[in-house]
Amino acid sequence: MRFYGDPTIIVDGSELVVDLDQIAVCSPQLNHLSILYDVDEPVNYNFRGLSPLENVVILDVGWEYFNWDCIVDFTEWTEKVLKCCPNLRKLIVHGKVLKSEDPEYLMNLAEHTSSMSEMLSKYPHIEVKFTYNVETFQNTPLQYGFGEDW
Questions:
Q1: Which of 110, 22, 15, 103 is nearest to 66 (CA)?
Q2: Worst-scoring range by mean pLDDT, 4-13, 32-41, 121-130?
Q3: CA-CA to 5 of 20 to 30 Å: which in 95, 99, 100, 125?
């Protein structure tokens, strides 16, 4: 599902708001939802939970570039989206990270993965796959992942 020109997007000043309740009502057959957590251009997702996304069985969540300052927020945001999808069977967490030998960067990435895994342990019925696209300094993407099918 793409949100270009869709009535579920509300521009409030410079803020972009996506109403998941309205998506649920307007797209009742939606079964695969992909949404991005963008640090540079924040989008507010309305999580009232009045109309759950009951048919969504596959959820893709991700970010453009790993930024430790927003990772705690990403984990909380992911859980809010999970709660809107009561029949979810598969979650794919993806993101871009820089190829780095910096121990602090790598430790932060490991902490992020651990915090996501800890949060996801509350949902044992959901199959989880992590996919990280590693960008080298020459902008050559490499793909690493783990979980089902890796």
A1: 110
A2: 4-13
A3: 95
pLDDT of residue 7: 39
- For residue 63, the cross-strand partners are 37, 95
DSSP for residue 67: -
End-to-end CA distance of the chain: 26
Query: How much is the pLDDT for 28?
Result: 83
Residue 142 has pLDDT above 80, yes or no: no
Contact between 44 and 35 (Cβ < 8 Å)? no
Domain ranges of the chain: 30-135
pLDDT higher than threshold 80 for residue 70: no
Distances (CA, A) of 74 to 7, 36, 67, 129, 136: 25, 10, 10, 16, 23
Residues 6+ apart with CB under 8 A from 137: 98, 99
CA distance 35 to 67: 17
59 contacts 37 by C-beta, under 8 angstroms: no
Structure tokens at 2: 């793409």
